Amino acid sequence: MTSNLATKLREGTKKAHTMAENVGFVKCFLKGVVEKNSYRKLVADLYFVYSAMEEEMERHQQHPIVSKIHFPELNRKESLERDLHFYYGNNWRDQIAPTPAAKEYVEHIRQVSATQPELLVAHSYTRYLGDLSGGQILKGIAQRGMNLSNGEGTAFYEFKDIPDEKQFKAKYRQAMDELPVDEATADRIVDEANATFGMNMKVFQELEGNLIKAIGQMLFNSLTRRRGRGSTELATAD
């Protein structure tokens, strides 16, 4: 049985994908504007989201649909924990909490798992395939934007149990296409994937406000320093 679900998801989420990429926070990130405090808040939000998704995927590892795309080598929870330790220190667990959008996202994953677990396929597809596709590019941007080195703070982008990401993506898409789903279920999974893009956008939009404030503060500090230097130069000239 072939569902062509991978193709349906790719075609059916193009608009949502484009919209997500055009959120201010994401556009700034892709241009290399990465502010450390905003970024670490994103890592914290992702930690809560992936923890929920991976717990629920594990819960349904015997499910006739979910089991087919349950690949533990994709799990990001532990890598996010390493990044949080880097950004927040040893007591990182006491310092983080999900933003309102991330909290809603997590609650939605729990609800889907309890009522329509087959829709977890949409969450897996939206997050993991994106991570595999653009991970190395985003890792490089984060490293340059925050002057990171030796893999510190970017463990999220490293799939150490997947030696060939391109090959794995082909395997993943094949598994998606072979899922035992009918047309109506496939449509519901595509709808859920679009909803998932929307939830991710809300997380980015919340962080966008923090980023704008941070950039504004950086510009203000820069101008203040310049004015200070100018005053010193005038005083010296006098």
The assigned CATH architecture is Up-down Bundle
- CATH homology group: Heme oxygenase-like
Q: What structural category arises from helix and sheet content?
A: mainly alpha
Overall 3D geometry?
globular
Oligomer: single chain
State Rg: 21 Å
The number of E-state strands comes to 0
Quick one: CATH class?
A: Mainly Alpha
Number of helices: 10
Q: Which H/E pattern describes the elements?
A: HHHHHHHHHH
Topology:
Layout lengths: L4 H8 L1 H8 L2 H7 L5 H24 L17 H12 L3 H4 L4 H16 L4 H27 L18 H13 L5 H55 L1
Structural summary, described in words:
By secondary structure, this protein is mostly helical. It has a single domain (5-225), classed as Heme Oxygenase, Chain A, CATH 1.20.910.10. It has helices spanning 5-12, 14-21, 24-30, 36-59, 77-88, 92-95, 100-115, 120-146, 165-177, 183-237. Helix 1 crosses helix 10. The longest helix has 55 residues, at 183-237. The chain is globular.
